[in-house]
Write a structure and sequence with these properties.
Elements lengths: L22 E5 L10 E5 H10 L2 H6 L4 H6 L1 H10 L24 E4 L6 E4 L2
Helix pairs in contact: 1-4
């Protein structure tokens, strides 16, 4: 019995074919900002986008794959990701850039519950 083949989908950021297990839907404008239109991205590319940009930045400046590719940190990531196999995945760490909106580093205060971010003294 033949199973239907899924159409080949390429990530608009790294231009690699996306295996079905690595396909994430990215809201071009975040859902929290009213976005409905989505695009498939490699899971590692999708996670990196959300680690690098705030939802406000995504809604205001980065609503297309082309706009995302203009950011220098994205360009470096894409150049690196293109050297990896299509099914490659690595844990993505949140960028410190999004936690320094006014050039003031944020400190982490731990408690028994969730982590709280506060301005460093």
């Amino acid at each position: 019995m033949n199973t239907p083949q899924r159409a080949t989908v390429r990530c608009p950021l790294c231009d690699r074919v996306i295996p079905p297990a690595q396909a994430d839907r990215h809201h071009l404008v975040p859902k929290s900002r009213g976005g409905r239109q989505t695009a498939f991205l490699h899971r590692v590319c999708h996670r990196e986008v959300h680690a690098l940009f705030t939802e406000s930045e995504l809604a205001r400046q980065y609503t297309t794959g082309e706009a995302l590719l203009q950011h220098p940190e994205r360009q470096a990531f894409v150049a690196w990701a293109k050297t990896k196999p299509e099914d490659f995945f690595v844990r993505t760490h949140e960028s410190t850039r999004i936690h320094e909106p006014r050039g003031e580093p944020l400190a982490l205060n731990r408690c028994d519950g969730p982590v709280h971010l506060t301005q460093a003294a």
